[in-house]
Write a structure and sequence with these properties.
The protein is mainly alpha-helical and about 210 residues long. Helices cover about 85% and strands about 0% of the residues. The protein contains seven helices and no strands.
């Protein structure tokens, strides 16, 4: 039971930490600012974007700003690196919950097996004079299995919930990142067209009288 108690404390600590993390991230979300960043990027108003995003801790904004800062080199690669950093923050501790889902029931079964061994050992030494000795020993042995399942079931629920939140955040970053890539490509394409059709002064063909 002591290892199971340790597992329950670890699971509780990770769950509380992740719950606080996602509450904080939800409070930091600013979808209006994200849309404004895309609008200003289309106008190439990068200085105005810098002023708008100052102090923002929205994870989508951070990804977009990282791409804008490195737009002259590799906008998509910069956003990919920033998104990976955000995903590492979001998935922190989930591996622990995933491990506890497997470890807790196995520890419970181990406790049950050792308890049954002890119960049958008492049965062999005392015979059938007092059957309650065996039944009490079996009941005590099954407690560890119940405890392992009680720990594992909430771990599965919270693991899936936090994993789903992380996947939703990844989809958001991918969607807005792709939108910024389209805007950036559109601006560069328009700039190239402008340079292609521009006729430098003095290069007009001479008219033949």
């Amino acid at each position: 039971m002591w290892p199971l108690l340790g597992c329950s404390l670890v699971a509780l600590a990770v769950t509380v930490d992740r719950a606080i993390f996602w509450l904080r991230e939800s409070a930091r979300r600013n979808r209006a600012l994200v849309e404004n960043v895309l609008f200003l990027a289309e106008k190439e108003a990068y200085e105005e974007i810098r002023e708008k995003v100052r102090g923002s801790r929205d994870y989508v904004v951070k990804v977009l700003v990282s791409g804008i800062l490195h737009r002259e080199f590799s906008l998509s690669a910069a956003m990919e690196v920033a998104a990976k950093e955000q995903m590492e923050r979001m998935r922190r501790g989930l591996a622990v919950l995933d491990t506890l889902v497997t470890v807790a029931p196995m520890l419970g079964i181990l406790g049950t097996v050792t308890g049954l061994i002890k119960a049958f050992d008492l049965l062999g030494s005392s015979g059938f004079q007092d059957p309650r000795v065996v039944t009490i020993g079996v009941a005590e042995a099954l407690i560890t299995t119940v405890a392992g399942l009680v720990i594992a079931v909430p771990c599965v629920i919270f693991y899936n919930f936090f994993q789903k939140r992380a996947e939703q955040a990844a989809n958001e970053m991918e969607t807005y990142g792709t939108s910024l890539e389209i805007v950036h490509s559109k601006n560069r394409h328009q700039g190239n067209l402008g340079g292609f059709f521009h006729v430098p002064p003095g290069s007009e063909p001479e008219r033949v009288p």
